[in-house]
Every structure is written in C-alpha cells, then in structure tokens.
Amino acid sequence: MAQMADVLIRGGRIIDPGRGLDAVSDLLVLDGRIAELRPEITLPENFRKVIEIDATDKLVSPGFLDLHTHLREPGREEEETIASGTAAALAGGFTSIVCMPDTDPPIDSPAAVEFIRLQADRANHCNVHVLANVSKAGKGEELAEIGQLVEAGAVGFSDATQPIQNANLMRRALEYCLMFDRPIFNVPDVQELSGSGIMHEGMTSMLLGLPGIPAAAETVMVGRDIILSELTGGKIHLQNLSVAESVELLRRAKSRNALVTADICPQHFTLTDESLRSFESNLKVRPPLRSANDVTACIGGLQDGTIDCIVSGHSPLAIEKKMQELDQAPFGMVGLETVLPLVITELIRPGHLSWLDALAKLTCNPARVLGSDRGSLEPGAIADITIVDPEAAWQIDAGNFVSLSRNTPFHGKSVYGKVEKVFVQGELRFNSTERRTMDV
Amino acid sequence: MSSSETEITSFHQQWTRPHLLGLEELSAEELTLILNQAAELKRQTNQCKTKISLLQGVTIANLFFENSTRTRTSFSLAARRLGADTIDFSSSGSSLSKGETFIDTAKNIEAMGVDLIVVRHRSPGAPHLLAQNVRCGILNAGDGPHEHPTQGLLDIFSIRERLGRIEGLTVALVGDIAFSRTARSNIWGLQKLGAHVILCGPSTLVSRDWEKVGVEVCHDLDSILHRVDVLNLLRIQFERQATRPFPSVHEYAWLYAMNRRRMALAKPDILIMAPGPINRGVELTPDVADGSHSIILDQVTNGVAVRMAALWLIAQRNQELVPSQT
What we know:
The complex is a heterodimer. Chain A is an alpha/beta fold. Helices cover about 30% and strands about 25% of the residues of chain A. Chain A folds into two domains: about 5-60 and about 380-390 and about 415-435, Urease, subunit C, domain 1 (Roll), CATH 2.30.40.10; about 65-370, Metal-dependent hydrolases (TIM Barrel), CATH 3.20.20. In chain A, the strands form four sheets. In chain A, strands 1, 2, 3, 4, 5, 16, 17 and 18 form an eight-stranded mixed beta sheet that branches. A four-stranded parallel beta sheet of chain A has the order 6-7-8-9, with helices on both faces. The relative contact order of chain A is 0.17. The longest helix of chain B has 22 residues, at about 295-315. Chain B is α/β, with parallel strands linked by helices. The termini of chain B are close together. Chain B has two domains: about 5-145 and about 300-320, Rossmann fold, CATH 3.40.50.1370; about 150-300, Aspartate/ornithine carbamoyltransferase (Rossmann fold), CATH 3.40.50. Chain B contains twelve helices and nine strands. Chain B is globular and about 55 Å long. The chains are: A alpha/beta, B alpha/beta. The interface of A and B includes residues 279 and 328 of A.
C-alpha cells in the first residue's frame, strides 16, 4: 500500500466538530501533520512531491476514535487479533481505538499493556489506546497497580464487561486515579438485579418466557457512579447507556457539572427488545436491546449532548459460540465496521443529528474523554483523517468484514455512507478501492 | 379407502405449517382443526388404546434436553398408536457436555433417517433454532417457560370434551405464570377460541403486564371462584426460580391451594385441571385432585389424542415423508 506523509485533499466538505467547522475546502498534510486548511490551496513551483486526492462530494473528518473495542488478543485469537481488529477499525473509519482489558491473561500488569502496544505497532494499522484492569485480574476485589499501569501507557481503567459491583472499590479507584488524571470506565449493571437475564425485562420477555434484565439494573448503578464521582471528584465514563432513566440521571448530573461522560452503541439507538421475537442470538447483547421508549430517550440524549460519544462496542465472537441456544450463546456483537453507516442512516438522514453533532461523538468528544490530542483537523494536529462518501448506498454484508468475526444482526441491512480512505499520521492506511488486498 | 379414513384425511388438507412451535401464531381455525383431528383419532383408536397405521414407515425422534416422563411417554405412545417408529434421545445436562452443540446433535439424529423431531429444551426458542437448521418437521414439547403447544391443546381439548365449547367460558390459570410454558400456550389458545382468561397467583409470579394482552389478572383466588368455569392449577416451577418468589410453600398453599374450603366457594359444576406432575398439598389437596370435579386423568389420555393429531398433521404437511399415501 502506498504510504504518503504529504497529501493534498482537494475540494472536500471539511467537518471539524471540535471547532464547529463545516465548509468546503482544501486540506494540506505535510510530514504527517495538518499543515493548512483553506479553499484552493496552490503549492509553490518546485515544492516537494505532494500526492493529490480529489474529495469532491466527499466528507473529510478527523479520524474516528472508538472508546470500546474488544481485541481478544491475547487468549481468543480465533475471534480477533490485534492485527485483524485494528484493520477492521480502519475499515470502519477509526484511526484510534481503546481496547478492553478482558483478555486472557487480563491487562492488569505493565507487561500486558506493553504487549498490546507492541502488537499494535507491529500491525501498524490504527492507534491503540489500552484500557487496563481497575482491579487485580479483573476480579473486582482489590485495586490493580494503577500507577505502574499508567507508566506503561494505560489511558484509563475498567473491568471491561464486568461492572464494578463493589461501591467501595469504585470509590477508591476514583480517588486513586485523581493522582494520575485517568478516567474510570464502567458498564453500569447491578448484577443482583440483572441476574441470569438474557434480554430486556418487559412485555416481550414476558411473552417469550425469557429471563429479563430490568432497566433498573443499569439506572441504579448510573446513580451510584454519579454520586461517587461527585463525592471523590474523580472522572467516570459510563459505557453502553441504554435506558431512558439513565439518560435523565446523567442529564441532571451534567447540569451540576459532574465529571461524568457517557457513550452508546448503535444497536441501542436502532433496535428494540421486540426484535428478540426471532430468537436470533446476534441480538443478545449486554446491556440488552431496550424498549422503543428507551431508544427515543437515548436519541434525545444524543441530541442534547447528554450522551457524549458513540462507540462500536465491538465484541467479536466465534460463530460456534453464537450458534447455540439463546441461554448458552454469549452476549455481544461486532461493530467497528457498521458504526458509521448506522449513524448516517439512523441518526443523520432522519434529521436527529447534524453531521457536526454526529461526528463530534466519534472524534473530538471521545478524544476529550481520554485527554487525547487526536480528533481534530486544526493546523499542527496529527493528520488522522477519514474520508467518507456520505451518499453511497449499500447493504451490510458480514461476509465482507475485515474482522475475523461475523456476529452482527445488521447483516443484509440497507444503509448509506461508506468509508473511502483513512489516513493515520498522514499515511494512507485504508482505501476502499483496494481493501481486498489489505494485509490483515 | 374406508369412510373413517376419508374423515381423517380431510383435515390435513387445510393444515399448512411444517412445524408446531407454539399456539401464539395459530389461528382459531387452525386450533379447531387440530382439536377436531384429535377427537377423530381418539375415536379411531378406541380412546387411544388401539393402533392404526397412518404413519407406518415414519420415524419420530424424541429429543429431550430437559427431564420429562409424562410428555415424552405421551409423544412416544401417540407415535406408536399411529404405527410410527420412535427413538428417544435424552440429555438432562447441557448438550455441550460432550463438546457437541445442540444443533449438531439434532443434525446427527436427522441424518440417521428421522422424519419428525419432538424437542424439549430449557431455553426458549430452542425449537425455533432447530427449525431453521434441520429439514424435518419440529414439534415443540416445551421450550423453557415459553410455550408447550400440545399441553395447551390437550387442556383445551379436555375442556371442550366436557363442556362442549370454549367460547364464553371463564378459565382461571392459577399459580406460577411467570415460569409456566403451559400458561402461555393456554392463554393464546383459550383467547383465540373465545374464552375469558384469568391469571391468578402471587404478584411476584403474575405480572400486571399480562392485562395488556387482554387477560384478567388477580391475586386473590377466593374472590374469583364464584365465576370460574374451569380452574387450571399450574405447578410451581421451583427448578426455574433463581430466588424464591414467595416466602414458603406453606404460605403459598395457604393463599392458593385448592382445597375443600375453596371448593365450597366455587361454582357447583367447576372443572378442576392440572397439567401435572402435581404437588399434592401445594397446588391442590388430595381430595380435590381425586374428587368428582377433577379431570386430571382425562387430560393425560387426551394428551395422546392431541399428540397423535399434531404428529399426523405435521407429517402430512411434510408429505414426502409418508410413503404410502396415494
């Protein structure tokens, strides 16, 4: 694949949500950084060789940043590797991802953090930020060695799919992380309430006889985490919001300037619990698909900024694990390669969000959660850039995923918007016209 | 072809479904068709005691991934009364205990030359998953707390046999609605045939949300007995309950057991039913279970009739399975 650190992107619609910019312009990248951004850039004669790309009718956005990817390596390389997962990220327009620590072994030691970073460097696809375990071995009992993990490069802490059940551990983690200015990520879910639930507790679960996960299992912990953040002054990032009351609690907390941020996966603003009537195991996710009322409230939370970020929640799972009875099949769906078309098809085209507001949730907002300098097209910024064809109409085909796994309920869905080209530090790392030859 | 065989075959021409997965998706006409077919087969087999050769050459597998004696025996007997061969496969634990998935197990059984699969599984939707992955006809013999269509049919059949109709009757299902597949199949079947359904039991096991599908919800058994034509006493599914939804069996029986005192509050011609196995002293006392209002053993006999009808209709729909129907 061609590498180029010097690029001139001509005639695209530049969307830089961090400063509210939405204008047609040229964009010059030199030495892997944004050099200039203005209409009709002319280069001096005898200027060094710059590769020109025509982006007429295309969108030019800061590269997307995903706060929630499960890479599965080490331990479950048949489902995803660091190389395949980061390649899938590029195909989805993501130039940076945050990987979850629920690997085997878990990411609770500096060596484990360094292994991830080393493998990501070798793969040389997108940037990988490591989220390390907040507790030793992810058991939710004792704090992991957070200081040393920060030193090794951890950007934040969580126990991945295991919500932090112990309120005192959460309190200590928030307090301890104040020293390092790192956020705690948590998937709010009180397990005494969710129990062995398989789907959202409501009419559909009642009719199907499937054990339910009540909305309160999420909301109770959202409330707890907001209060503990306010008690300690620690930063908390709530993952995978799905419930109307959670959005409302968060809205009120934000009006008090609480240091709480939140994200949502596309399935929670597109699908409802009623779809489980098909007993399709790819619809078994955690948190579960909620009611139509919750979906509406989540879209409202995206509109008024209560929900800061949209994430992939990418959870690759082997087909033989998913092809089981619903109670045996594990929770989760892949997401990296379907976030953008779902955002465009379900949020932007119906008029729920503007391009600026939608792309903010994939660029500058997640960058702010991490304290990262990425996610911007300001001159001087690192040139992570995603070019999108916003009108391309296509059908999601799980068989064409770059990811090693295929567990998506969106297979066959008609969508709009395709990732065309992705640059990381000015290098062209993904090009839709040559994706078949991409080295995974 | 004798006249009785003409009658039997007239029903199947209207039956179009390749599987019997639940009663929710069936129309009143389809329900009536199965009930009529069952009545005819019950007569043909001399109250389910003698054999006729409608399904000769057909092999039916009972795949039971959850414990069952009654339903499995009833399906086996129904198959044999129709002249089919049966094989039994039971695995009370996870199908994965030998590293084989549930679907692979079913595909292997099918590859041995099986025409119909009767499946029971602890997980709702498991028969639906099979129906998508194997070619033969699937009959749901109970999928977790979701549906148990032949149980629903046999309960309705038994009521219709005694009272001559379903429309206009008031039928109360008492007890563990939350975890009961029998309740769900009864609700759909009874409603479609025009009965008024009351769900009665502790508030932890009977959700008010059921009112949204048009049934009556009540937590006080004594208050409804004077207007109930049929009482179906469901077993408490202790094995499915993660945390016990009531303080003690003693308190449950005090609130909901059908006993002599409550019989005195009931309509004089009330029918007492129970899908079994019954917990004597919990859902009902022995004098009520064995008393003159009880049709519990009729239900068992009718189970064979209804299952004969279901097997026959499904086998006919998958016609190529039946060699000698020309």
